[in-house]
Write a structure and sequence with these properties.
By secondary structure, this protein is mainly α. The chain is 45% helix and 7% strand. It contains 12 helices and 7 strands. A hairpin with a 5-residue loop joins strand 5 and strand 6. The chain is globular. About 1% of the residues have low confidence. It binds fe (ii) ion (FE2) (2 copies). One fe (ii) ion binds next to helix 3.
């Protein structure tokens, strides 16, 4: 994407003409010290004085944002970057379909827009908080650098949402911006707003699962908001999506490399049965059944982020022109959905059935279906690695009724195959499907850091190519102790 006219002369790099928008610039500069305090309290633990090879806005060159260079994380230039304005853009769905997109917040939809921006904004610092301890156990400098790239970009996504709040929502926007720095992931009194963002990310396999599954929920939400009739939100989200793609790359290739290493180690040791967990673990790699359990956990937690399958909030946001569907403009229908239906998985007389619901109220379900399809792609790649190594084992996405805390299936228990079971049965079998504390201990035992250039922990394969095409022994992080 061609980002034009980035101004690096203000403290906050931007392409929204902040130097002529004194009031907003002042509000953002006022917020900045609190952000830096948050970063030092809750951002990556250690490494703050290390030089990290990041893609960063480090220069005054208009294309400087996309360049790679060494930077200390606290000196990363978090900026406000919006995708270019599309000329004559119209609202692509809902009751205002075909009307010019809004450049200011429409009064009638103000509260709804603010809520959606705050919820999105809250997830960004949350994931940084969840990942803050991982630097200490990075399997390589390459991975350490990727973690920090994700972290600084999530920080920038927070800036992106705070800009919208401060520019378009006046005093309550500024209050919300402060609240975003006050909540903490997992805090008993003041947690982050969504469940998955209060879970722990205790090890690197969790990190890869998180960036694959949970950042992908972010992708779907950003796509829907990129369709918004509120043009500044649309433009912000379109730019964020370019960064989000890297986060999911980290997840997908991370899991690929773990699977690859496990398969190689099993082959070298002559192990024929990948389910022989003790034998595989003795090799110092993560067995495939445990990878499946981690996948079950992160996928089900991420499904909860889509909210209830049937939702009047989702219908209202669509009608209002505030939040659209995944790839709305490429869908061929009336974009109003007044008379259409969509099949929703529901619990009917103790059975999981597809029931046609009004398409408007089923928008969360539809987005979740799009998400599931998107998730399945990684599954194919990972299974290819396993089958190429000659093993008869398939990683699969669990049924959507499995391990849910929100929506239709929150009050029942289901197996990963989608069979409903009672509490007692669930209690007995769940440690076969979700990571147990023993599994966690085993994975934790492998998490010893590797910090020499070109070195990799024995449980993960090196990547096929380096970041910015750097060679394998490139020093992605110059660690300062
Ligand atoms: Fe993000
Ligand atoms: Fe992300």
């Amino acid at each position: 994407m061609n980002i034009m006219n980035v101004d690096y002369t203000t403290k906050i790099p931007n392409n929204v003409n902040l130097s002529e928008d004194r009031q907003v610039l002042k509000a953002l500069e006022g917020w900045h010290p609190g952000y830096m305090d948050w970063w030092s309290d809750m951002g990556p633990e250690g490494f703050q004085q290390s030089l990290v090879y990041l893609r960063t806005a480090y220069s005054v060159d208009p294309r400087g944002w996309a360049k790679f260079d060494y930077v200390k994380m606290p000196e990363y230039r978090w900026g406000i970057l919006l995708a270019p304005q599309e000329e004559n853009r119209v609202i692509p769905f809902g009751e205002h379909y075909g009307e010019p997109a809004w450049q200011e917040v429409p009064g009638e939809h103000r509260a709804m827009l603010r809520r959606l921006i705050v919820i999105q904004g809250d997830t960004e610092p949350a994931s940084v908080e969840q990942q803050r301890h991982l630097g200490k156990t990075a399997p390589s400098l390459y991975d350490l650098r990727n973690l920090f790239q994700v972290n600084v970009e999530e920080g920038r996504h927070l800036w992106a949402m705070v800009y919208l709040l401060q520019k378009y929502f006046g005093r309550d926007g500024r209050e919300e911006a402060d609240e975003l720095l006050r909540r903490r992931s997992g805090d008993a009194d003041s947690p982050r707003m969504l469940g998955a963002f209060n879970e722990k990310t205790p090890d690197w396999l969790s990190f890869f699962m998180f960036t694959y599954f949970t950042d992908r929920d972010g992708k779907m939400q950003l796509h829907s908001l990129a369709q918004s009739g509120f043009d500044p939100l649309s433009r912000t989200c379109r730019f964020m999506l370019t960064e989000e793609a890297h986060h999911m790359f980290v997840g997908e290739t991370g899991i690929s490399r773990v699977v690859q290493r496990t398969c190689e180690a099993m082959k070298d040791a002559g192990i024929g049965d990948p389910s022989d967990i003790a034998k595989v673990r003795a090799l110092g790699v993560i067995d495939l059944p445990t990878i499946q359990k981690k996948l079950n956990l992160h996928y089900s937690l991420s499904l909860d982020l889509f909210g209830s399958e049937v939702s009047t909030n989702a219908a209202n946001a669509f009608n209002a022109g505030v939040k659209g569907r995944y790839r709305e403009t490429q869908i061929e229908d009336d974009h109003r959905l007044q008379n259409s239906t969509y099949p929703v998985l529901k619990l009917v007389n103790g059975q999981i059935k597809r029931v046609d619901e009004p398409a408007l109220t089923a928008l969360n379900m539809r987005l979740r279906d799009d998400y599931t399809q998107d998730c399945a792609k990684g599954m194919l790649r990972w299974n290819k690695i396993i089958s190429t190594a000659g093993y008869d084992f398939k990683l699969t996405l669990p049924n959507v009724a499995f391990h849910r805390q929100i929506g239709e299936f929150k009050d029942v228990h289901a197996t990963p195959e989608g069979a409903l079971i009672d509490d007692a049965n669930w209690g007995k079998r769940k440690s076969g499907w979700l990571p147990s504390s023993d599994d966690g201990d085993f994975i934790a035992s492998l998490m010893t850091p590797v910090t020499e250039p070109g070195g990799f922990a024995p449980w993960i394969s090196p990547p096929k190519v380096g970041i910015d095409n750097k060679p394998g022994d490139f020093e992605y992080v110059k660690i300062e102790t």
